[in-house]
Amino acid sequence: MPIKQEQTIKQTQKLSPLQIQTIKLIELPIQELEERVRKEMEENPVIDDTPSEKEDGTEENAPREVSLSEIKDDDNTPSYMYHVNNYGKDEKPHYDTFSVKQSFTQSLMEQLGFRNLNEHQYTIAAFLIGSLDEDGYLRRDLDSLVDDLAFRENVVTDVKELEQLLSIIQEFEPAGVGARNLRECLLIQLRSFRQTDDVKNAITILQDHYEEFANKHFQKIMMRMGLSKEEMKAAIEKVRKLNPSPGGQVDDSYNDQAQQIVPDFQLDYDNGEFNLTMPRFSIPEIRINKKYADLLLESAGSSERAKKEAIQFVNQKKESAKWFIEALKQRQNTLYSTMQAILEYQHDYFIDGDETNLKPMVLKDIAEKTGFDISTISRVVNSKWIETHFGIYPLKSFFSEGLENKEGEEVSTRELKKVLQECVEAEDKSHPLTDDQLVSLMESKGYNVARRTIAKYRDQLGIPKARLRKEI
After folding, report:
1. Stated pTM of the model
2. Quick one: three-class SS letters along the chain?
3. What are 63-77's pLDDT values in tens digits?
4. Does one domain contain both 266 and 131?
């Protein structure tokens, strides 16, 4: 069989240093961007964040913004000023932070410090705290933890000692922390309450009749414990008010596991007009330090070789600073343009935050409005938040696929989920709606949704099956 050779031409796109720098900065939320800028200032001595001085010793006003084409690149002229202004008109920048998740581990370690433990016990207890998952549970078996302590901490212990120290952790706040399963978590919380009859009944139910309780077999429990309907309801209500996730993790698919968030955008709505701004944040107003560059060249002395090396160093740092500052400006423009496009696309929703007005929207829709690549839009909306007059939201939450209603209009999955949740909340809990019944109810409201879609959305909303939603 003859071998055939073919020559093909493949076109590839190579990103410029500025594009690469900009892409990396776009991905960062404000707090990480602040750290990135300060790191750049530490590594590049040519970058400065202090106002320049006139010859008479007074400070100059902020230098005008110039384009890259205005910057001279000849070796003997490091005398330009180029800056990016991250501040507004106020002299002191500020931003508001919002708590997303309390520092769970830090809180437990602080409580551990108040216990009278020796170094050996403290090490083991700290290791147990570090082994808790985000919900506050200890999911790993104690035998494995004994081995881990031996290999990783060089600490010899046994299961009995671990149980003793775990019982101490289970006394910490929030109540229920350190449990190994849901049953233990609920019991820990109940035992911390004042022991009324309702609480005692709830403890007995979870201790002796947990399977029946989990499967909603209330009549069987009432018969075995000799409880009246009112007593059973009261005990169930005690359990219902307990926290199944004492770790305090926000149940949000957009949660980035940060202790605090700083909104990247602020949206105000007044007299029918939107005002979109990017809050001022504590990133220094950076510029290239002319005096440092001149001083560096002067310190090179009379040696031609030393002067050449100094010039080369200054130009290298100057070039790096130039791209970094320009990338910062492009980041600001890209973020603002993207959020402005989202605002225009979801105009009706942003008036009052009514999720039924949230239109189906995918990354491609915003990419087409802005002219940016889909990958750029994805980087912009990742880990970015907006503060509105009706709450603080991650940009990701405004994107969703859509389905058609009876009129053939496209509605967002967010709207469908909201209507589904309202249907479940309004149902008769003694006869909760099955998925088939929910399909019919949604259809009567104008939404054509398949049964498997109902089941999918119900799971995503954390709504149990009908049998498990039954109440007496």
Report:
1. 0.49
2. CCCCCCCCCCCCCCCCHHHHHHHHHHCCCHHHHHHHHHHHHHHCCCEECCCCECCCCCECCCCCCCCHHHCCCCCCCCCCCCEECCCCCCCCCCCCCEECCCCHHHHHHHHHCCCCCCHHHHHHHHHHHHCCCCCCCCCCCHHHHHHHHHHHCCCCCCHHHHHHHHHHHCCCCCCCCCCCCHHHHHHHHHHCCCCCHHHHHHHHHHHHCHHHHHCCCHHHHHHHHCCCHHHHHHHHHHHHCCCCCCCCCCCCCCCCCCCEECCCEEEEEECCEEEEECCCCCCCCEEECHHHHHHHHHCCCCCHHHHHHHHHHHHHHHHHHHHHHHHHHHHHHHHHHHHHHHHHHCHHHHHHCCHHHCCCECHHHHHHHHCCCHHHHHHHHCCCEEEECCEEEEHHHHCECEEEECCCCEEEHHHHHHHHHHHHHCCCCCCCCCHHHHHHHHHHCCECCCHHHHHHHHHHCCCCCHHHHCCC
3. 333 333 333 333 333
4. no
